[in-house]
Amino acid sequence: MREKVRIASGQGFWGDMLDAPVRQVRGGPIDYLMLDYLAEVTMSIMQKQRARDPSAGYARDFVPLMREILPDCVERRIRVTANAGGVNPEGCAAAVREVARDVGLAGRLRIGTVTGDDIMHRLDDLLARGIELRNMETGEPLSTVRDRIQSANVYLGAWPMVEALGRGAQVVITGRATDTGLTLAPIIHEFGWGETDWDSLAAGTIAGHIIECGAQCSGGNCQFEWQSIPNLADVGYPIVEALPDGTFFVTKHEGTGGRVSVQSVKEQLVYEMGDPREYITPDCVADFTTVRLKDAGADRVYVRGIGGKPATEFYKVSISYSAGYKAVGTLVYSWPDAYQKAKAADQILRARLERLGLRFEQTLTEFVGVNATHGPLAGDPAPDIPEVQLRVGVRGEDRRAVERFTKEIAPLILTGPPGVTGFAGGRPKVEEIVAYWPALIPKTEIETHVEVLEV
Q1: Does the N-terminal peptide bond of residue 89 adopt cis geometry, omega within 30 degrees of 0?
Q2: Ramachandran region of residue 225, left (φ > 0), alpha (ψ -120 to 50) or beta?
Q3: Which pick of 24, 25, 353, 373 has the fewest CB atoms within 10 Å?
Q4: Are 359 and 401 in contact (CB under 8 A)?
């Protein structure tokens, strides 16, 4: 057993800094690189991609990244856990396998895949057997939106990844696994924790929660004293140094920008936390009220005291479905009377939409520069406000109505108040709305599959 295991966060979402994983691998000693790519809406995007191309459906940025860092990872014995597989972990693994062979790693690398999270093809059978997959927020049964569903994926936990690591996988690619599981799995594997070691599992889960959003816990997006955070241009991504007793340190590579402090870790802890006494994952229930933080030196925080409870009998399911269409148009009005001009333009636009008989489920107007961020709390704007962006959005089931709305913004330039200084982005585009449907499913209904491939 190792005395400690160092797990580095390299991605907080699909679209995060492309060179962050490279700097984590080459910037100092680490044992594992954790890469988190998935968000709820990402799965529906990937499902559409795979519908057009059966070989697609995963985070394509992951493949060129592996081309760049795999030789370093093999040389330094760094293992990778990533949910880059999206809705096609096998396709992602095949692409990485090809890249590994291209860079001369044939016979020197094993790639593990975890599947079983995608239940899109099972929905009708589940519903027919009385598993209603009710919306956790509204209580509605899934049958009410069955014909509009685009993706359905279970949040798998750490244990399938632990199996892959135990079978020698140096790169583990999953679909919709929990963000925390990507960090917890290496810790379980290295320290041999059991499935009922609730306090330890909770500690590993919270370690994963702290670093799952990348640099958000090492100085990025920091709310307090953000002006004093050094060198965010070269922000260092976080690293967890886990110990067998369930305690751990949060740190980053020396010489990098940003800051790891008790304050920065606290801010990440409360991110998407919910009930602090019951942070529910597939692996355990973590009690955030037990967390104790201590400054352990420059860019180093010690975390201890974490308590956990038994896991529930359910997995959470992330389901996305089509919920109509939307479009957003903008115009910028200049001084003098910028706010008054923008308000008048909004009233004129609404009157024209009414005259045309266009009806929408929602019409939302924001005055950027006045109240778009804080709404009524912003109070009255200064009388000499220099510029205001009028932003009007509509949503509805009728695509043709939304399309017609997009053609009513530009005419305001010559048929409305004076002083339009920018027609941002041309005619607005109609976009499909993808809505989120959270549900629960008994764990007994889900069977995961682990495969380990030789390169």
Answers
A1: no
A2: left
A3: 373
A4: yes
Is the pTM above the cut of 0.90? yes
Q: Which CATH class is domain 319-435?
A: alpha beta
> Which residue type sits at 139?
G
Query: What is the C-alpha separation between 46 and 351, in angstroms, rounded?
Result: 40
**DSSP secondary structure string for all residues of 82-119:** E-TTTT-HHHHHHHHHHHHHHTT-TTS-EEEEEE--B-
What count of other Cβ atoms lies within 10 Å of the Cβ of residue 314? 17
Each residue's pLDDT tens digit in the chain (455 positions)? Answer: 789 999 999 999 998 999 999 999 999 999 999 999 988 778 878 888 888 898 999 999 999 999 999 999 999 999 999 999 999 999 999 999 999 999 999 999 999 999 999 999 999 999 999 999 999 999 999 999 999 999 999 999 999 999 999 999 999 999 999 999 999 999 999 999 999 999 999 999 999 999 999 999 999 998 887 899 999 999 999 999 999 999 999 999 999 999 999 999 999 999 988 899 999 999 999 999 999 999 999 999 999 999 999 999 999 999 999 999 999 999 999 999 999 999 999 999 999 999 999 999 999 999 999 988 888 888 888 878 999 999 999 999 999 999 999 999 999 999 999 999 877 678 899 999 989 999 999 999 999 999 999 99
What SS3 class is residue 186? helix
State which amino acid sits at residue 234.
D
Q: Interior CA angle at 8 toward 112 and 215, to 5°?
A: 125
